[in-house]
Amino acid sequence: GRTTTAVKLVLLGEAAVGKSSLVLRFVNNDFEENKEPTIGAAFLTQKCTIGERTIKFEIWDTAGQERFASLAPMYYRNAQAALVVYDITKPASFIKARHWVKELREQATKGIVIALCGNKYDLTVNDEAEEDSGEVSETSKRKVSVNEGQTLAEEEGLMFFETSAKTAYNVNEVFLAIGKKIPEA
Ligand code: GTP
Ligand code: MG
Questions:
Q1: Which atom of ligand 1 is nearest to the CA of 21?
Q2: What ligand 1 atom has the least distance to the C-alpha of 121?
Q3: How confident is the model over 80-94, as pLDDT tens digits?
Q4: Which residues make Cβ contacts (< 8 Å) with residue 46, sequence separation at least 6?
Q5: How far apart are CA 93 and CA 96, in angstroms?
Q6: What is the best residue among 27, 35, 75 to mutate for testing ligand 1's pocket, by most ligand atoms within 8 Å of CB?
Q7: Which ligand is nearest to the CA of 30?
């Protein structure tokens, strides 16, 4: 029969990587060019259907600004899933993502499902050339390679996606993949 599973999910990552934008895309299928920074945290919900199951995501979208860093444990403490986001054009945000993964592994619930998300994929224009040659095209703003993201994900047992909240590339896929990994209650 049809069951609904509530899944508490937290988004973590440096300021301005696009956490709120990913949530806005997933929940409202919308995007804002000049989205204001999150203050404290925002709470949103969204349901999705996976086969016979309905997953109700209870989403805590945290603020990335450093002054809110001490609040994060409140939001990840009971989370069953986490989305750790970086911006593929900002190497510092990738370093920050590493730190979040480490902190989650040490402090969050054992068995938490984590997806690593390299956002702003749309800024790698001329991707086809990039994919064909394996080299970053001259017009691409990419500063973190796909391989760096994949390697971190393999080392830490994370799912890995590159996404664009702007174009919607891979956004639903991330949430669906997380939902599939959540055991039935
Ligand atoms: P904090 O709330 O401060 O932690 O930031 P955040 O991670 O929630 O970032 P937010 O979603 O507010 O996005 C920051 C800026 O990046 C906004 O101007 C967005 O429009 C832009 N942005 C977000 N996602 C993308 C994307 O996929 N591509 C591009 N080009 N811009 C994006
Ligand atoms: Mg935000």
A1: 11
A2: 27
A3: 999 999 999 999 999
A4: 26, 27, 56, 57, 59, 175
A5: 5
A6: 35
A7: 1
- Give, using CA atoms, the residue closest to atom 5 of ligand 1: 16
Mutate to test the pocket of ligand 1, among 10, 12, 19, 21 (most ligand atoms within 8 A of CB): 21
Mean residue pLDDT of the chain comes to 93
ipTM: 0.99
Q: What is the DSSP letter of 124?
A: S
Q: What percent of the chain has pLDDT over 70?
A: 92
Helix (H, G, I), strand (E, B) or coil at 102: helix
Label residues 157-174 b or e (16+ Cβ within 10 Å = b). Answer: ebbbbbbbbbebbbbeeb
Residue 123, class by beta-carbon neighbours within 10 Å (0-12 exposed, 13-18 middle, 19+ buried)?
Answer: middle
Centre of ligand 1 from the C-alpha of residue 44, in Å: 17
Q: Is the Cα dihedral 156, 72, 8, 147 positive or negative?
A: negative
Report the predicted TM-score, pTM, of the whole model to 2 decimal places: 0.94
> pLDDT tens digits for 163-179?
999 999 999 999 999 99
- CA-nearest residue for atom 10, ligand 1, is 18
